[in-house]
Amino acid sequence: MTDEAGIGRAGPSGLARRIVTAWALLGGLLLVAVVLINVITVVGSVFGVGVPGDFEMTEVGVAVAAFMFLPYCQFVDANVTADIFTSRASPRWLALFTGLASLAALVFSALMLWRMYLGMLDQKAYHYTTTILQFPHWVAFIPILMSLALLVLASAVTLKASVSASAGEQS
C-alpha cells in the first residue's frame, strides 16, 4: 500500500516517514515557543518587562524550525513546483521529473550536510556567540545537521519510490 506521494507505508520507508513527521512536529512546537516568546515580549513591553535576547531566540528558532520542515516537505512532495509545465505530462514523465527532483534534493542535501558540518566546526572553533545571551552559534547547527541528514534520507526514499513508480509504469 502506498500513500499520496507513492511512498510505501510499510518497511523502512514507513519508519523513515514517521521519524520525519515527528521531526517536523517538533519544528512546529519550536515555532510555537518562538511565538510565545514574542507574545510575552509584546505584552511585557506594556508593563516595562521584556525578554532579554528575544530577537536572538527568534532568529535561531525560526532558522532551526525551517530546516526541520524540509524532510517532511520532501516526503509529501510539498516543494515548490512549476505545474504549468507538467499539467499535461503523462504519469511516466511525472515520475521521471519527480525522480530528477528527488535526485537533485539528495545531492543538494548531502552537499549542505557536509558544508554545514564544516560551518559548525568553524563556529565552535572561533567561539561565536549571540550578542545578548552569549548563546554559542554552533549549538544551533546540531538540529540543522539532523534535519539535513533526514532530508538525505527522505530524498533517497522518494527517489527510490519514483524509480519504482517509473519502472512499474513501463511494465
Automatic annotation (TrEMBL):
Transmembrane segments: 20-48, 60-81, 93-117, 137-159
InterPro entries: DctQ
A GO molecular function held by the record: transmembrane transporter activity
Membrane topology value: Multi-pass membrane protein
Subcellular location: Cell inner membrane; Cell membrane
Keyword Transport tagged: yes
Main location: membrane
Chain ranges of the Tripartite ATP-independent periplasmic transporters DctQ component domain: 32-159
Function: Part of the tripartite ATP-independent periplasmic (TRAP) transport system.
Quaternary structure, from the entry: The complex comprises the extracytoplasmic solute receptor protein and the two transmembrane proteins.
Protein name: TRAP transporter small permease protein
Organism of this sequence: Hartmannibacter diazotrophicus
